[in-house]
Amino acid sequence: MKQVSFINAFISRRQLLLSALALALLPKKQAQAQAQEENVRLHIAANGHAPHRGQFHPVTSAGKKIVMIDPGHGGIDPGAMGHEGSEEKHVVLEIAHNIRDILREHPRIDVRLTRETDYFIPLYQRVEIAHQHDASVFMSIHADGFTHPEASGASVFALSNRGASSAMARYLSDKENAADAVAGLKVQEKDNYLQQVLFDLVQTDTIKNSLILGKHVLQQIRPLHHLHSQQTEQAAFAVLKSPSIPSILVETSFITNPVEERLLGTTAFRQKMAGTIASGIISYFAENDGHNRQSAQV
Ligand SMILES: [Zn+2]
C-alpha cells in the first residue's frame, strides 16, 4: 500500500502520457538511438565512466526551470501598427528583454528568448525552440491591434482545441496565425489515430496548466493595468500548440488605441508589464512546487 502511494508521487498521469506520446511519435531510427543512449547510461552507472562517443547532449540548466519568452513577430512581419507609427515587433522585444532582466535575478529560473533581435521566426519554429530548450513554460508577448481604436486593456490567451471563447479571441488568433503567411510558409500536419488520441490527452493536460499559468499572470496585471478580459481566453493560436509545455500569449495592450500606443512607448509602462508577467511566472512555479511537495509527502 505504502509502495503504491510512493510510486504515485513520482509517476504522475502527465508523465505517463508524455512518455506514451514520445514513444508513439518516435520514428524507428530515433527509437534505436534512444535505446543506445539508455545503454550508455547503464554503462556509466555500472563502470563510473562514459565510453568515448561524439553524441549531441541537450542543454541542461542545473536544476533550474527554463522559461521561454517569445517576443511576437519580427523582421518582415512588423505585427500591428499604431496610429503614430509604433510597430508591435519592437515594443514586444523591449518588454521581453525587461522580463528577462527581472527573471535573471531569480536563483531557480533560467530565462531564454526565441528571438534576441529584429528577425522573423515562423510560429511553428517558436514552439520547436521551446522544446529544444526543454522549457517549463512558454510565454508569447504581443501588443495587438483591433479595428476599433477604442479597444483597450491587456488579455491573456491559452490554446483551445474547440472554438474560440470570444469574437475577440478568434479575431486575434486569426491575425497572429497569419504571421507565417507573411513569409509564405505552410506547415504540414500528419498524425495517425493513436498518435492523435495520445496527443489530445496530453494537450488537454497541458491546456489545464496553461489556464493556471494564465490565472497567475492575470492576477498580477489586474491591480496595475486595465484588463480587456477578466479570464484567460482560449483560441487556436498556432504559437501555443506545444503538446507538453504550458503556453500562454499575453496581449499587453492594444497598440491601435492611441492612449495605449503612447503608454507602450514609455520605458515605465514596458517595465511595469514585464514585472507583472515575471511575477505571474514566479507565482505559478511556487504553486506548482507546493503541489509537488504535497504529493511527495503522501
Ligand atoms: Zn501580435
Molecular structure report:
- This protein is of the alpha/beta class and 298 residues long.
- The chain has 10 helices and 6 strands, in the order H-H-H-E-H-E-H-E-E-H-H-H-E-E-H-H.
- It has helices at residues 2-10, 13-25, 28-47, 88-103, 123-132, 167-177, 179-182, 193-221, 258-264, 267-297, and strands at 65-71, 109-113, 137-142, 155-159, 233-235, 247-251.
- A 6-stranded mixed β-sheet has the order 2-1-3-6-4-5, sandwiched between helices.
- Helix 4 links the parallel strand 1 (65-71) and strand 2.
- Helix 1 packs antiparallel against helix 10 (267-297).
- 36% of the residues are buried.
- Residues 1-10 and 34-59 have low confidence and may be disordered.
- Bound molecules: zinc ion.
- Residues 72-73, 79, 88, 142, 144, 176 line the site of zinc ion (ZN).
- Residues 72-73, 79, 88, 142, 144, 176 line the site of zinc ion.
Brief description of this entry?
The chain has 298 residues and is of the alpha/beta class. The protein has helices at residues 2-10, 13-25, 28-47, 88-103, 123-132, 167-177, 179-182, 193-221, 258-264, 267-297; strands spanning 65-71, 109-113, 137-142, 155-159, 233-235, 247-251. Mean pLDDT is 82; it is low at 1-10 and 34-59.
